[in-house]
Design a protein that fits this description.
By secondary structure, the protein is mainly alpha-helical. The protein has four helices and four strands; from the N terminus they run ααββββαα. A two-stranded antiparallel sheet has the order 1-2. Helix 2 packs antiparallel against helix 3 and helix 3 crosses helix 4.
Amino acid sequence: TNAANANISNAVSMLQTQDGYLQQVGAALNQMATLAVQSQDVTKTDGQRADYQAEYKTLASYVTDTASKQFNGVTLFSSASLAVTTDGQGDTFTMASVNMGIAAYTGATGADVSTATLASAALTSVTAAITQLATDRAQVGANEQRLAYTANELGVLSNNLSAAKIGRAHV
């Protein structure tokens, strides 16, 4: 059970790292949405929209770069699910993946706010990415909770096995 607990602990650390990145992606997407709305303002000049576009592209680049982040050599954001061995018998829990390469994210990062018309479309794309992000963060939280329950279960098992060994030693 010690090895399984170590596996679970490592997986939880990875999930916490993943969620931390997703929180920052959320902040970037929120700012991208703000820029898309501001760029639709009819009182803005082309020069102001160019400034919004520059900031938007910088934030989009951040989101794109985050998609390739790793934890101890393991890609955090891909389509591949990861199986965590959760006990001494080799049972596993397969964590659902978070894929930042899907259209909900790439649509937002590939959008443009240099004109009011393009900014309107960008806002739609960013809104879709924010919705996907909420789903992805919920999945990360669900994965983390499932592993926490398993870790607690292993703790009870370990305590019971220790108590049984002590009981036999006193007989």
